[in-house]
Amino acid sequence: MNNKYNEFAGVYALMLTPYNDDKTINYAAYEEYTQFQVNTGAGHLFAVCGTSEMAQLTLDERETLAKLTVKNADKTPVFATANLEPSWFAQVDEVKRMSQTGVKGLVFITKGMRDDPERQYTYLSELATYTDLPIFLYEFPGVQPHKMEADVYKKLVDTGRFVGIKDTTCLMPPIKEKIAVQGDSNVLQANIPFLFEAYKAGARGVMATPTSCGAQLFQKMWDEFVADDLEAAEKTFQHIILLDNAIDSGFNVSAKYLVQLQGIKGMTPINRGNTILSPARMNSIKTYYDWAKSNGLAY
Q: Cα dist. 208→56, 102, 173, 295 in Å?
């Protein structure tokens, strides 16, 4: 890695959760899928994330998925969300449990406190005292209002406990505001249309849903960008845009179907939110996959 980036910069491949027909977790398929994600070459894995349907999983399920990700990660660093439980005391227990799974670091969601920035800062900094692991922040849209102002982010980074943030503002001005104060931390981008622009502005990596089914493209783009080959990075970015558009509707079963097409048969296109892929959507994704595979862009 280019020495202007630290160990927490780069591509975080998000993890999907495969289900059996009765919507229990297919753990065998998950282990196979974890190995699939490792083989993409992505620098990190993000288990127990929004794309994993973390809000639909029990704490025991989340803990098991984190452990299985670490088990099958082949030394690829794993991060996992650790503050989803409803009460403070339950979150403290969750942080302690997730810290013992073998993950490299934790992720804290911002818990819908944007309108009370002092409370947001106090809550996150106090929760951080219950782990020694590095922590990423996550503007998780599932708990509104989820965004974080740049000055709060800077204060948290200045504590020395937080190594970055998954920014989901999807607008360049607030992205740049966080980048301006990131210091040695890492502002990671979740919005695909602005990914290349955000990199050029100083973003230090990506955490985004399409990495769950096409992380090899994101790693390729990152490597090209770090090598200052902007022409190649922009071309790969164009392919990423096509991937993003291909799976844009049907979150997250579109990504699951694309993974299934790439060989993970246990990754059935179902979720606990009862999203259904129509035959037309499945044919559209299959057409994209056939094109991507013929061009060396998918497995």
A: 19, 23, 19, 23
Please state at what angle helix 88-99 crosses helix 59-71, rounded to 10 degrees. 20
pLDDT tens per residue across span 16-38: 999 999 999 999 999 999 999 99
Contact 1, 226 (CB under 8 A): yes
User: How many other C-beta atoms are found inside a 10 Å radius of the C-beta of residue 5?
Assistant: 15
pLDDT in tens, 106-142: 999 999 999 999 999 999 999 999 999 999 999 999 9
Task: Show the domains of the chain with their CATH numbers.
Answer: 10-234 (3.20.20.70)
Determine which helix (DSSP H) or strand (DSSP E) holds 118, and give its type and residue range.
Answer: helix 117-127
Burial of 93 (0-12, 13-18, 19+ CB in 10 A): middle
Tokens encoding 270: 């179902």
Nearest to 226 by CA among 43, 60, 61, 95: 43
Residue 192 identity (one-letter amino acid): I
Q: Which of 235, 206, 203 is nearest to 219 (CA)?
A: 206
